[in-house]
Amino acid sequence: MLVSPSIIAADFTSLKEEIKEVEDGGADRLHLDIMDGVFVPNITFGPMIVEAIDKMTDLHLEAHLMLIDPLKYIDAFADAGAETIIFHIESKSKPRLIMQKIRDRKLKIGVSLNPDTPIRTLFPYIEEIDLILVMSVNPGFYGQKFEPKILPKLKKLKEIKEKGNLNFEIEIDGGINKETAPIVAPYVDILVSGAYIFKSRDRKAIIKNLKNLC
């Protein structure tokens, strides 16, 4: 199991130390929640912060673009050091154009689904996607409660992946903790967790426990 701590829950007054602690604790990636205040009702940070983070760590950076028009910002986040760019299928940008832009930059293509968005919206693109991020909360704020209704979606995605011999990774984000992680572990490759990791006193132990759920 890969673990990708979401830095939205970190202490930004000590961001370098926060990142180092989860990196030393065994994290595989860093999940960067980019919010524009339009697609979701919150604003976080942009390419300048991603560039700064890239200088603080060797971890793989996945930029989760919760933006109404992500196509405009692919180059900016690629230049900043993102290695996987995840966009929402619900955004107003045309998926095919976003994917081509990400591919042109030789980055991993990630697509995210909100809890109520059906898997079929991905079918035209599924063979070209490197990562599918299933949201188990409505995006916008960390610390929300996990929504069990997404479990059938996870099971179906795994079935599609195995039957089609496809290579995309399945990632889950939202309310992941010691109770919910074991529930989703049979169906996913990557766990994103924010508050559960960063609000813990022993982050190394938390990450180790999550990584052992395979």
What does it look like?
- The structure is a single chain.
- With about 210 residues, the chain is of the alpha/beta class.
- The relative contact order is 0.18.
- The model has no long low-confidence stretch (mean pLDDT about 95).
- It is built from eight helices and eight strands.
- The protein has helices at about 15-25, 45-55, 75-80, 95-105, 150-165, 180-185, 195-200, 205-210, and strands at about 1-5, 30-35, 60-65, 85-90, 110-115, 130-135, 170-175, 190-195.
- It has one domain: Alpha-Beta Barrel (TIM Barrel).
- It has an eight-stranded parallel beta sheet with strand order 1-8-7-6-5-4-3-2.
The mean pLDDT is 96
Helix content: 25-40%
Number of domains: 1
Q: What structural class do the secondary elements suggest?
A: alpha/beta
E-strand count: 8
Q: Which architecture would the CATH scheme give at its second level? A: Alpha-Beta Barrel
Provide a short characterization of the protein structure.
The protein has 214 residues and is α/β, with parallel strands linked by helices.
Question: Which structural traits does this protein have?
Answer:
single chain; 214 residues; alpha/beta; TIM Barrel; 8-stranded parallel beta sheet; 8 helices; 8 strands; 20% strand
